[in-house]
Write a structure and sequence with these properties.
By secondary structure, this protein is an alpha+beta fold. The protein has four helices and eleven strands. The radius of gyration is 18 Å and the shape is globular.
Length: 240
């Protein structure tokens, strides 16, 4: 089996932002796509999980950006899983061009049993002979968000039909698009984030109104999306 999957991709016009660089949301979208590609190879893609009442979710992801490729450039996008514990796994990603690492990321993922709404044991997904790639990226622990995020929200976003995935809830990449859309072009250029971390706390659905809270930090900005009842949905950190 393929323990590390690499695909050579061309950065398309639909992938780039107003400055012709691979957009922040599309970084996450390409990660999602190649993770699905490898899950098909490894035999636990959604076509296998759905009949069993299972679906896989990404709960956390952090990205280090050294350089964003431009439209028309070819890059090598790679992904590989780490050996999971009983119910949680980590997956690594890199963008490279001619041996130069442009972007690297790691995510934490799990599988949920929709019948019990509990985490499913994933340590049995892999064949005993499967050899995990030993390389790891961004090995520091994920952030523990402790900011209170009180006061008045600075923005809101109503979840639309185009944000919903086949499971009926807001797609992970749709959160990133909503997040980046909170910033003006000028703000994004000034911030020029080199590190992005996001954490998905619970699902939201079409028609839900997300209230966004923001806290400035020495490194950049932290954000939180909540429902009107105070339920925390999503956290993000963008650092210079």
């Amino acid at each position: 089996m393929v323990n590390k999957l690499t695909e050579k991709i061309k950065i398309q016009p639909s992938d780039v932002d107003c400055n012709n660089y691979l957009s922040y949301p599309d970084i996450f979208a390409l990660f999602q796509n190649i993770a699905v590609d490898q899950s098909e190879i490894l035999g636990y893609d959604q076509s296998v999980l759905t009949p069993k009442g299972l679906f896989w979710v990404t709960s956390k992801c952090k990205v280090k950006i050294n350089e964003r490729p431009k439209q028309g450039e070819y890059v090598d996008l790679s992904t590989w899983p780490e050996k999971p514990d009983r119910i949680r796994g980590r997956r690594n990603y890199t963008f490279e061009k001619e041996g130069k690492r442009l972007i690297e990321a790691t995510s934490e993922w799990a599988i949920i049993d929709r019948n019990t709404n509990r985490l499913y044991m994933i340590n049995n997904l892999y064949d005993e002979s499967f050899e995990f790639c030993p390389e790891k990226v961004l090995t520091d622990p994920f952030t523990r968000f402790t900011t209170a995020f009180t006061g008045e929200p600075f923005a809101e976003y109503t979840v639309r039909s185009i944000d919903i995935d086949f499971e009926g809830h807001m797609n992970n990449v749709a959160y990133i698009r909503a997040l980046i859309g909170l910033f003006s072009r000028k703000e994004l250029e000034e911030l020029d984030p080199k590190f992005i971390e996001v954490q998905y706390k619970t699902s939201c659905y079409e028609g839900d109104r997300l209230l966004w809270y923001r806290a400035e930090t020495d490194e950049g900005v932290e954000l939180c999306a909540k429902l009107g009842d105070g339920t925390e949905i999503f956290f993000a950190k963008l650092c210079r």
